[in-house]
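Raw record, unedited: START domain-containing protein
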Amino acid sequence: MGTTTDVTLPPFNAVRPSDAMRLNAVQVLEDVDFHYAKELCDGHADWTLAYERKRTRVWTRRTDGQSPLQMIKTRSEFPDVPAALCYDVLQDTEYRLKWDKYVQKTVPIGFLNPNNDICYYALGGLPPFQSRDFVLLRSWLDVGLEKYILAHSVWHDKFPPSKTHIRGVVHLTVHFMRSSADGKGCQFTYVTLADPKGKLPSWLTNHVTKIVAPKLVKKLHKACLGYAEWKKRRDCQCLTNGETLLHDYPRIRLADCEPKEDNNSAEFVDETAVPRALIGEEEEEEDEREGREK
């Protein structure tokens, strides 16, 4: 990660994030950061609508400067999923392994306080592309009708880059849930600005915005509806994420979070020659499997 170039998060409606949201910053987020996240989710100026169907829309936006990275924003309405339920599902890393095929492994590393932790994620699920992994500082906030989960990449000595995964970089991820007027549903918004590293084919961004993002939101909705039954079968203690952290994991040592230079050769893997047809075949097989399960 030491070779990663930082990306400046653009202001939205004159709101700028604090330094706590910088890449590799291991700090408790400030109020302005959650305000920034809300403006990012609700403001659509300078965004390009890439997908719209039923209750789901996906936008993209170029970052400022010379960076080739794009921000992706997905918004969907869940009329039968309360915001609190969606919030709980997104924080349950064990359940995530069941419903999200892209998540291979999650390892909570430790906590700063009950609302901020560091976690390791290994992601795959899109063969033949090589798997990526991330170390993220996650921050969450519940203010009643609105709930937030924010994340960005940091370093931790116990999880340096390896040869088995390409170490990606998340400049910002936002999950924002707003309760509906009747309290029975919620509006869910997801924003991400990430660098998967390596060299990827130009068609992949279009694939993510029009295929992967809408499917993931659909699977999240389905996962929310099945969460109560899953917990019942698991006989879960139903601790909140903060309670689990304080009970089971150590406090983060800031000395372990000083970024180091790495020579992870996997970062420079060239996957630009992967044909679009291979991914299409895999998706058709998945759709057939889902159809048989219904």
